[in-house]
Amino acid sequence: LRARLALWAALATGLAVALVAAGLFWSVNGFLRQAQEARLLSVVGAVQGRVEGLLRPGRDDLVGALLGVATVSQRELERVADGVDRQGVDLRLVAAQGQELASVGTSSFPEGVPLTLRAGPGGYLSADGAHLILVRPLRGDALLQVAVDARSLSEARQAFGRALVWLLPLALLFSLLVGWVVAGRLLRPVRAL
Question: Phi/psi at 128 (nearest 5 deg)?
């Protein structure tokens, strides 16, 4: 009977710890994601006007000015990204050329991000979880994809998982020990009968 009472106390405590940990993980993960998205929005605000300025045909480019077409090089996008915050900010410009999509981006733009991402209010998380990507429409049906480093999200998840791996068994052991002691004290009068 004493072992059963101790086991039930340990299981109840373990369930409570798991529920609290899941709630904390969900809320902290949400706050971190919001902070990353706020950073991404501020970067997009700083970058979008500069990239649109690059899309205007210049006076030096007579053919581009006559056709209303502008070309943007990787070096120009690197310069724009460096001017904002080069630590973890990457840009890619996507436009239709005939029936296909063409793109130019900074050298460290994440691999595997599809060209077909749609512009919208929310961001996309890259497949490896290392980058948060926001897509904004530009003049001439071009799209600007801005990627910021989001490793802090995955690092926080991993740290939380490691803490939970240690916390849950320790909580179960501690509650089992306390349950054993308390059950022994509660059953002392029954044993005396």
Answer: -85, -5
pLDDT tens digits in sequence order for the chain, 193 residues long: 778 887 888 888 888 888 888 888 888 888 887 888 888 888 888 888 888 887 776 545 444 443 444 577 788 888 888 877 656 788 888 888 778 888 888 888 888 888 888 887 777 877 777 888 889 988 777 888 888 888 877 787 788 888 878 887 888 888 888 888 888 887 788 777 7
Instruction: Check if the beta carbon of residue 148 is closer than 8 Å to that of residue 88.
Output: yes
What would the two tokens of residue 192 be?
Answer: 């005396």
Token pair 């609290």: residue? 20
Strand order in the sheet with 131-137: 100-105, 89-97, 143-149, 131-137, 124-125
pTM, 2 dp: 0.65
| Segment 92-101 long-range contacts (CB within 8 Å, at least 24 positions apart) | 92/144, 92/145, 92/147, 93/51, 93/138, 93/142, 93/143, 93/144, 93/145, 94/142, 94/143, 94/144, 94/145, 95/140, 95/141, 95/142, 95/143, 96/141
Angle between helices 2-55 and 151-192 (to 10 degrees): 170
